Amino acid sequence: MMRKIFTPLAILTALMFAYAPVMIANALFESTMGLVQKIFYFHVPAWFAMFTAVFVCGAASAVYLFKGRPEADRIAVSAAELAVLFGVIGLVTGPLWGRKAWGVWWQWEARLTMAFLLELTFVGYLLVRKYGGPGAEKLAAAMAIFGMANVPFVYVSVNIWRTLHPQTTVVPTLGPGMRGAFWFCVLAFMLLFALLLTLRVHLQEQRATLDELYLAEEDGAV
Amino acid sequence: MFLKVALLILRKDVAIEAKSREILYTTLFFAVSCILVFSFAFVKEGRAVEDAAAGILWIAIAFAGTLALGRTFERERFGETLKALLLAPAARPAIYLGKLLGVVLLLCLAELLLVPLVALLFSAALFVRPALLAGLLLAGTVGFCAVGTLFAAMLVRARTRDVLLPILLYPITVPVMIAGVRGTAALLASPPDEQVATMWLGLLVSFDVVFVTLALWTFEPLMTE
Fold first, then answer.
1. Is A103 exposed, middle or buried (0-12, 13-18, 19+ CB in 10 A)?
2. Are B168 and A132 within 8 A, CB to CB?
3. Residue A105: domain span
4. Which of B96, B165, B168 should one mutate to test binding to chain A, selecting the residue with the greatest count of A CBs within 10 A?
5. Alpha helices in A69-169 (DSSP H)
6. pLDDT reported for residue B112
């Protein structure tokens, strides 16, 4: 199924990303923040995509750990890479805005700290997979599950510690002139996430097949 | 049965440690050197920066804890006894619990010396609310070790375990550090802010419950080849 709709979806996503700047330019001009506010149309969707990736990775890791299904592990590693990727987009666009709005690149503030931590967790996940040696998949799966369970704790603790970020209630209160462009961008990012995930899982499957072929070849030679 | 196995493992670890005292001494020494190093960063004109004592205490515990966690399983690996332990007809989670109790006990012993030392060196009023401080320390130590014991056990087979343990452990235990440091800092304020400290203690206890459960639950599939 996915293979059939992959190309049309890829074209659609490309077109959406090509058209997104037009939508964003035409969206209502935010009077207090001015032009810098426009970054929000990429910043928030990137975080949406990251949180989806984190959730997919955690859930897939749990399935892998308890059921031992290799497919689940492939999804988990692909999602973890995407979580890092979208996290980097968020971490780059955030300070660009913060420099203009707050006058500093970085603030030790609740949501920033939390984003930074989540990014660290998943970079850690990838490091474990790369350098953990044999059996690293299981280690990484535990890391992902613990990382996911950690999200509410980090959220609560960091929230009490510091709060400065524009509240998350900003999304429902968006003016009608901005809502269209915002959800358009969210959809584009979600599609991009789904496409990249499919591609990456496919690559992982092919790697597994290749490994099996090598093993079979070695067995045959001996 | 479950508790009996856990206590047996605890007894075994305590007996080994009581003979050599290797982990306790090295961990303590390391923690004290951490405190010394931090004092250079946080002491200005002979006086510690505000709240520095709380931060230094918890960072020293975390660093020393990492060392102790690594060592407890290194010992099992070196004696090739981990396999025997896992082969024993006992519930795997009970093995985890026994190991966890051992590490917590060890760190608590280290804290018994570290807390007065920090109080003395940074003239911090750590003993104004001793019960609350003990609660924070115990809950924090349990939370830190719950995650750490599981990760250290999993990493026994990895070649790069020394590097990977902190990589895995620190991002996950950040809530413990925040709650521990902020809670202790609240106790250091004058007058001590009991309400804030109790709130952080609550967060630590819920962290403990969730992560001990999660670790007991994942220990079995993780330790199975």
1. exposed
2. no
3. 42-164+177-221
4. B168
5. 70-101, 110-131, 136-161
6. 93
Spell out a b/e string for B27-56, using b for 16 or more CB atoms within 10 Å of the CB, else e.
Answer: bbebbbebbeebeeebeeeeebeebbbbbb
Domain count, chain A: 1
State whether ipTM is beyond 0.90: no
Distance from CA of B168 to the nearest CA of A (A): 6
For an interface test with B, the pick among A120, A138, A146 (most B C-beta atoms closer than 10 Å) comes out as A146
Per the prediction, chain A carries an average pLDDT of: 83
CA gap A58, A152 in Å, rounded? 14
Q: Cα–Cα distance between A59 and A148 in angstroms, integer?
A: 9
**Residue-level pLDDT at B184:** 92
Is the minimum CB–CB distance between A1 and chain B shorter than 8 Å? no
Confidence of residue A221 (pLDDT cuts 50, 70, 90): low
Is A132 close to B164, i.e. CB distance below 8 A? yes
Q: Which of A136, A146, A160 sits opposite B158 (nearest CB)?
A: A136
pLDDT of residue A44: 86
Query: Is the model's pLDDT at A110 over the cut of 80?
Result: no
Residue A102 structure tokens: 């707050």
How large a percentage of chain B has pLDDT more than 90?
A: 46
List the 81-140 stretch of B: residues with Cβ below 8 A of A: none
The pLDDT-based confidence of A162 (bands split at 50, 70, 90) is low
- Domain borders along chain B are 2-223
Provide the terminal-to-terminal Cα distance of chain A, rounded to the nearest Å: 40
H or E stretch at B166:
helix B161-172
Quote the tokens at residue A56.
Answer: 């997919």
List chain A residues with CB under 8 Å of B73. none
Q: Is the preceding peptide bond at B191 cis, omega within 30 degrees of 0?
A: yes
The C-alpha of B147 sits at a distance from chain A's nearest C-alpha, in angstroms, of 8
Classify residue A149: in a domain, yes or no.
yes
DSSP secondary structure code for residue B191 in this structure: S
Q: Do A117 and B171 touch (CB under 8 A)?
A: yes
Residues (pLDDT < 70) of chain B are 225
Residue A116 in contact with partner chain B when CB distance is under 8 A = no
CA-CA distance, B225 to B220, in Å (whole number)? 10
Report yes or no on A29 lying in a domain.
Answer: no
The percent of residues in chain A predicted with pLDDT above 70, rounded, is 88
A113 inside domain: yes
